[in-house]
């Protein structure tokens, strides 16, 4: 793969996609997220050799939301190893990120760790095994990103807490099935904080670069490939061809094993809850650079 034209490809992609009509919507179901300037657009690509290619609003912090479910998965897997899979699966759900339906007929075992239900179970594991899970998550993210000031946006966490009806239902249903071991409010507090982490595209690309490093975390990449975009995972694989993870703040991280990590940000979401322009940008980048993994 030729690296020397990456910058030009990224610049051109951003300019082209900036001008197309954005058919997405801001995630207003979390009131605190609805204040964002919806025209924001940023890209940052970091290679495993520490080369950086960036453009647009790539140095502006935003709410990474469900992207941080990759972090919590890595931490919980460190704690429980393969025992984790008795609490949460690794199958694509084919349903939306906050769906209750599957959870009922699958007896409180979420399909995968990136659904809200799955991430809530993961937070329950962190609460069971760590003295201060919120601090532990922050320490881990700060170490990976190289930025010791990264933190939670407590207004976003509080906004989610206040409008927590659906996440509360997921947690209650799983509690009834015996798959939440701790107090629900304690677990959801960790979950809402996890989702409220803020980062720039540059920091996101740096934080997740470890998933592109030689043969590491193959499991995590496999789960991202199949489950990172909810009921759009197949389409993302088909169009972009990289493992990745989205968040309702409009960010997406994608990994090219052994080559690079790339973060994009555009706040308006398509109907599946993934960044409308973010996916388009990644599709053009992997097409133009010939770097789909397939
Ligand atoms: N915090 C959001 C929620 O619980 C995360 C959803 C997402 O980013 N897909 O709904």
Keyword list:
single chain, 294 residues, alpha+beta, five-stranded antiparallel beta sheet, two-stranded antiparallel ribbon, 12 helices, 7 strands, 10% strand, binds glutamine
Topology readout:
Blueprint: H1 6-18, E1 42-47, E2 52-56, E3 62-63, H2 69-80, H3 101-105, H4 116-129, H5 133-145, H6 154-162, H7 165-176, H8 184-195, E4 198-199, H9 201-207, H10 218-227, H11 233-239, E5 244-246, E6 251-256, E7 260-265, H12 276-289
Antiparallel strand pairs: 1-2, 1-7, 3-4, 5-6, 6-7
Helix pairs in contact: 1-12, 2-4, 4-7, 4-8, 5-9, 6-8
The chain binds glutamine.
The site of glutamine has 11 residues, from loops.
Structure commentary:
- The protein has 294 residues and is α+β, with helices and mostly antiparallel strands.
- It has helices spanning 6-18, 69-80, 101-105, 116-129, 133-145, 154-162, 165-176, 184-195, 201-207, 218-227, 233-239, 276-289, and strands at 42-47, 52-56, 62-63, 198-199, 244-246, 251-256, 260-265.
- A 5-stranded antiparallel beta sheet has the order 2-1-7-6-5, with helices on both faces. Strands 3-4 form a two-stranded antiparallel sheet.
- A hairpin with a 4-residue loop joins β1 (42-47) and β2 (52-56).
- It is globular, with a radius of gyration of 18 Å.
- The chain binds glutamine.
- The site of glutamine (GLN) has 11 residues, from loops.
- Residues 65-66, 97-98, 116, 160, 167, 195, 247-248, 273 line the site of glutamine.
